[in-house]
Design a protein that fits this description.
single chain; 232 residues; alpha/beta; three-stranded parallel beta sheet; 9 helices; 31% helix; 22% strand
């Protein structure tokens, strides 16, 4: 039997992983427990009553966090010619065409978001094996394939995040940092929960959201009270 560390003992005194918490109480508990030496990310984990194998039950979308993510977002914009001017003005770290596609293809990954103009997608499509597994492939459905590059860059830097159902029927998203005020964490969480609830596929029968837990990067997962969150 593995030995329980001092930190784990302290966490067990404060948090009960079997209890169901109102979101405000869960946030307060996560603020109280011992943390790592870095500013941990606050994460929401959803278990949904969907069948990931059915294409008509896929859940995917984007949502703007009212208080941002708490981290610096490095944006790559793939486009041609003067189309990149608006992206540069909006604060994109890297803007270019074929040369950036080649650089990414060779293994360069020093960025967090990839945005592309529609006319670059034939070339960007070659990066599917590199960007796809990391969830970075530009997609019109998430607003990362667009002619309005400036707006897309601003949204990415302001706190626009993507959520996507995985093969096990789960969604995991970071919603901020533990250093955020309690109210900010709760409002970011409420915004994400509402967005996922609204993304329910019409073909899903029964309860859509089966379980939600809130945690920090290195902390325990606390079960949230679904009835108080208005999930279905």
């Amino acid at each position: 039997m593995p030995k329980i560390t001092k930190k784990q003992k302290e966490i067990q005194k404060i948090a009960d992983i079997e209890k169901i918490y109102p979101i405000q109480e869960a946030v307060l508990i996560l603020k109280k427990i011992p943390h790592a030496k870095f500013d941990e990310t606050v994460e929401l984990a959803f278990n949904l009553g969907t069948d990931p194998k059915q294409s008509d039950q896929m859940v995917r979308g984007t949502v703007m966090l009212p208080h941002g993510t708490g981290r610096k977002v490095r944006v790559v914009v793939l486009c041609k010619g003067e189309a990149g001017n608006a992206a540069k003005e909006a604060g994109a770290e890297y803007v270019g065409g074929d040369e950036l596609v080649a650089k990414i293809s060779s293994g360069w990954m020093d960025f967090d978001v990839v945005i592309s103009s529609p006319d670059m997608m034939r070339d960007v499509g070659k990066l599917g094996k590199v960007l796809g597994p990391r969830g970075l492939m530009p997609n019109p459905k998430t607003g990362t394939v667009t002619n309005d590059l400036g707006r897309a860059v601003k949204e990415a830097k302001a706190g626009k995040i993507e959520f996507k159902l995985d093969k096990q029927g789960n969604i995991n998203v970071g919603i901020g940092k533990i250093s955020f005020e309690e109210k900010a964490i709760c409002e970011n969480a409420d915004t994400v929960i509402s967005a996922i609830n609204k993304s329910r596929p019409r073909t899903v029968k029964g309860r859509f959201v089966k379980k939600i837990s809130l945690s920090t990067t290195m902390g325990p997962g606390l079960k949230l009270d679904l009835a108080r969150l208005g999930t279905t």
